[in-house]
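Subject: sequence -> structure tokens, single chain

Hey, anyone have a minute? Need the predicted structure for the following. Not urgent.
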Amino acid sequence: MGKIAFALGPLHFYWYGLIIAAAIIAASLLALWRARRLSLPAATVFDILLWSVPAGVVGARAYYVAANWHIYRDNPLDALRLWQGGLAVHGALLAFIIVLFLYARWRRIRFWTWADLAAPALAGGQAVGQWANFFNQEAFGHPTGLPWGIYIDYALRPAGFDQFDYFHPVFLYESAWNLLLLLALLAAGRALRSLPAGALFLTYIILYAAGHYYFAGLRLDGETVCGVSLARLFSILAAALGLLLCGRRPPAEEQ
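Reply:
Had a minute. Here:
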């Protein structure tokens, strides 16, 4: 399957971008639905989306470009070619947290309340967004003969794996993990009012990081620094921070 979904004249619409857009829409609809269920103002959701979506895209691209600077060093303008792929969820997540924190301070709203609302939406968006890797033939693992193995073009196979055609679709496994995480967070969210503020969001961070750490270890691709996987390092730091914050109930004014 090609990377281009369709074309309108000179404009080409890539599967990667369409899937990422679908992930953003899915996350936004989930956030709006939860806001209605929790009697929180939808206008605030739209305000947060207005700032966080562009920031998330910029953060995701900036993280990826920084981690793969050797690719863009000679042609820096290629960093603007988003349709060719190359977004890192870590950068998007960091950008979202920063934007939400600053927005909460600016509007004097409770950061942890809105972080809890966003947690299932983030998991849902990730479950959808992982499929962008399918069309770019990314996020795959070792060769497999299983029926759901993904075909990888010869030019994209890592060195030493040229003779294999089908590989584990790690993106599919992580998508399923995020879907399960979404369902678990929605179930837990029914008791949100009886939970400490921030509990749902921190649970998302810890469980997402644990899953991402595991699946990053299955991949044959991925960014490394001095032989250390950036994805696994980020996951360790995120999980550690989440566990640290779990021991601290936010002050009443922050809840």
